[in-house]
Design goal:
The protein has eight helices and seven strands. The protein has a single domain, classed as Vaccinia Virus protein VP39 (Rossmann fold, 3-Layer(aba) Sandwich), CATH 3.40.50. It starts with 7 loop residues before the first helix and ends in a 10-residue tail after the last strand. By secondary structure, it is of the alpha/beta class. The radius of gyration is 17 Å and the shape is globular. Pfam families: Methyltransf_23. It comes from Nonomuraea terrae. This is Class I SAM-dependent methyltransferase.
Amino acid sequence: MTSGGEGAFARATGREAEEGGADKPRYRRYQYELISPFCGPSMLEVGAGLGEFAAQFTDRRRLVVSDVDPDAVEVMKARFASHPNVQALQFDLGAGACLDDPVDTVVAMNVLEHFEDDAAVLSLLSRSVRPGGTVVLWVPAYMALYGDFDRRVGHFRRYTPATMRQVAQRAGLEVLVSRPVNLLGGVAWWAAVRLGRAGTPKAGVVGLYDRVIVPVTKVLDRVLPIPFGQSVLGVFRVPQSGHARRD
């Protein structure tokens, strides 16, 4: 992923800042329920896009929402204008951005896979976190699911729990969680890739998935050990001695 932000949101997601895309409220809530237990009272979301996921965290003492794309940042400034505890800013990881005033938790949803040197970027993310705080990542899973959509939006790779742990360890972070999530989404995406149809997600299909499949997925997550999924959830602790240093 390169520095420079204009149009970056569209390139990374296949959506335009103006259009918003298909709504996925149940899926966002599913992500929130998995991630929020690991998030402290002050947070930074990197690559927050239009702020749809971050909007669930406006109860935090401090919430920084950021994106490399200035158009997306302007959308978020308007979205969160009524929340004095929320700051929207342009944040370019490719240019080495980090916060002057660190937070308890950095969240990056579908961000790390856009960088060739992912361990270096993860180490950089940790510099925006106070010692003992957490970095929470949600990344696409399993190279068997890599298809046209991944190529089009600039994914260097998809992860497994093992490769996610390895990246975190190279970045000098303690691994708390690294596991697959969204079993049914992974199966559906695998079938789409095999059939050559995993290009641009269609609004109607996304809506049906959100209404029907996500509630079942949440039940399966509670009652079964999930061996496979569309994504990997990673939670990592920054050393108490200070920000992580890459080996």
